[in-house]
Specification:
The chain is an all-alpha fold. It has helices at 3-45, 50-60, 64-69, 71-90.
Length: 91
């Protein structure tokens, strides 16, 4: 094989690798979306689990962009914890 054919085969392999990476990324993003929805549903249905969810966010979410994305969610969860503890204290 000459260099031109080898370069062509190399490029085809790189193109295939890029397509596979896109497929992997789509599947992973889908999984992340489902898991995120599940965690939001758990927090909604079982407020007693909110402190653990907040602790897990603090421990496992480390990228600045991700941290800023979750600020509103964390605030909402924090207010639910306050409401829940106030309601339980009043009972």
């Amino acid at each position: 094989m000459d260099i031109k054919n080898l370069e062509q085969k190399r490029q085809e392999a790189l193109d295939k690798a890029k397509r596979l990476k896109v497929q992997i990324d789509k599947k992973m993003n889908g999984q992340k979306s489902v898991l995120g929805g599940m965690i939001m549903k758990i927090a909604e249905e079982d407020p007693s689990r909110i402190p653990q969810i907040l602790a897990d966010i603090e421990k496992h979410v480390t990228r600045k962009a991700d941290i800023s994305r979750l600020e509103g969610f964390k605030s909402e969860l924090g207010s639910r914890v306050s409401e829940n503890s106030n309601q339980n204290g009043m009972s």
